[in-house]
Amino acid sequence: MIRVTTVPVKTYLAKSKIPGTHYVINPYVGCPHKCLYCYAEFMRKFSAHQEPWGDFLDVKLCSTPLHPSQLFHQHVMLSSVTDPYNPFEKKYEITRNILKQLVHCQAYVSVLTKSALVVRDIDLLKKLPNCNVTFSFSTADEKVRELIEPGTSSTEEKINALKELQQSCIPTAIMAAPLLPGISDWKEIVERTASHVGSFLFDSLNMRATFQRKLMDFIDVHFPHLLPLYNEIYLQGKRTYWYKMQEEIETYAKEHNLDMEVFFGKESAFSFAPAESENPIPPNVPDMGPTQPQLF
Ligand code: SF4
Q1: Phi-psi region of 172 (alpha: psi -120 to 50; beta: other; left: phi over 0)
Q2: Residue 95: helix, strand or coil by DSSP?
Q3: What is the best residue among 24, 83, 117, 206 to mutate for testing ligand 1's pocket, by most ligand atoms within 8 Å of CB?
Q4: 263, 176, 177, 180: which is closest to 229 by C-alpha?
Q5: Which atom of ligand 1 is nearest to the CA of 37?
Q6: What would the pLDDT profile of 237-252 be if each residue is shown by its tens digit?
Q7: What sign does the dihedral 88-94-100-105 (CA atoms) show?
Q8: What's the rounded Cα separation, in Å, for the pair 90 and 147?
């Protein structure tokens, strides 16, 4: 059950520390996609929620319009600490309304999502200059996806969405991340999507304290044979596994003439540090008090 609340905000924009990105917009606080390895859980400290991450969603409402004088040809990312196309976007259309404003501003927009709902907004994405959509895949195995990213679109839905975006001439990419040792099959992700995307980025699982216990319990239950590998990588700090995988990916990329970048151990555009100005719920904004939470 997800607790959904509408909250007033003064602005949707947050200045970005992500290289090549001027601003990020996170239309929601929280994310019902509930990925086991979610790096965005730190956002709880900006909200008063006691529920576990994934069990609440704040829908941001902002009456201040985005302005071309600030955003014309500026790089804007949707989103860094939530998925702009979580299932509640179908009802609230916050992302869609933001995109309409970004079209007016003629901003350069990068969308990052795990949801096929993005195709609903192809009409707007086509009107943006330099727009691109990146789909994040940590696995192409449907059984594994259901376990580790239960709220996301299925692998097939995402692949169909990639096809639709491609047919609409919207550049697409795959962020194969985070790759989970012994579980994520990077080659399967590439082989199933390569004909619909322009480029690939790869990143390894960065074990964060916020989800370490949850993830290791999951490995213990579902993949106990991998415990020694996880201990080797994350307790002993050995990187042999990633060196070998990086070599395999780079060799494959050369052989297949694919545009690929491997970020293992490096800061990538997707190693999201929270934006300094990210304070999603400013208090005391007049005329737009929070509605009663709705339970779904
Ligand atoms: S889609 Fe992104 S923000 Fe949402 S739970 Fe998964 S990792 Fe976190």
Answers
A1: beta
A2: helix
A3: 83
A4: 180
A5: 7
A6: 999 999 999 999 999 9
A7: negative
A8: 23
| Most ligand 1 atoms within 8 A of CB, residue of 28, 42, 56, 114 to mutate | 114
First to last CA, the chain: 5
Q: Which is nearest to 102 in space by CA: 79, 130, 68?
A: 68
State phi, psi for 149 to the nearest 5 degrees.
Answer: -140, 60
Residues 6 or more apart whose CB falls under 8 angstroms from that of 292 comprise: none
Its CATH class, for the domain covering 3-295, is alpha beta
Name the average pLDDT for the chain.
Answer: 90
d(CA 169, CA 77): 19
**What residues flank ligand 1, with Cβ below 6 Å?**
31, 33-35, 38, 40, 82-83, 114
Q: Which residue's alpha carbon is nearest to atom 8 within ligand 1?
A: 38
pLDDT digits (tens, 9 = 90+) for 118-137: 999 999 999 999 999 999 99
Residue 289's Cα: distance from chain center in Å? Answer: 29
Element (H, E) at 252: helix 240-256
The pLDDT tens digits for 181-224 are: 999 999 999 999 999 999 999 999 999 999 999 999 999 999 99
**What's the 160 CA to ligand 1 centre distance in angstroms?**
20
What number of residues does the chain have? 296
